[in-house]
Amino acid sequence: MTLALYHYIGCPYCARVRSFLDQTSIRVTMKDIHANPAFRDELVKIGGRAQVPCLVVDGKALYESADIIDWFKNKYDPSGNQTKN
Ligand SMILES: N[C@@H](CCC(=O)N[C@@H](CS)C(=O)NCC(=O)O)C(=O)O
């Protein structure tokens, strides 16, 4: 499973997700769309819009900070890296 979080420093919703992740051992590739405009283009291509935070799970975009945190809490299995049913 590949996980990438599109975000930027200064976005409060992104900070909420980063803060959640900081309290876990979950490893996610971080893609700052302000630091690297290519990441912004990539996000629009994948998800259709440049809204952050956006978690991309195996190529599928999940927007909304609350939904991202819920996904980690309820769908992500840290032991096996598998999505729970
Ligand atoms: N309800 C969303 C709000 C996200 C949001 O408003 N993000 C801003 C940055 S702080 C953004 O990406 N705005 C640009 C856009 O929506 O295209 C969440 O909780 O994730």
Structure description:
- The chain is α+β, with helices and mostly antiparallel strands and 85 residues long.
- The mean pLDDT is 93.
- It contains three helices and six strands; from the N terminus they run βαβαββαββ.
- The chain has one domain: Glutaredoxin.
- The structure holds glutathione.
- Glutathione binds next to helix 1 and helix 3.
Largest sheet: 4 strands, mixed
What fold name stands as the CATH topology?
Glutaredoxin
Low-confidence stretches: none
What is the distance, rounded to the nearest whole angstrom, between the alpha carbons of the first and last residues?
A: 15 Å
CATH class: Alpha Beta
Beta percentage is 15-25%
Could you tell me the mean pLDDT?
A: 93
Bound compounds, please?
A: glutathione
Helix/strand order, N-terminal first: EHEHEEHEE
Determine Rg (CA atoms, Å).
Answer: 12 Å
Distinctive features:
Glutaredoxin, single chain, binds glutathione, 25% strand, alpha+beta, globular, 85 residues
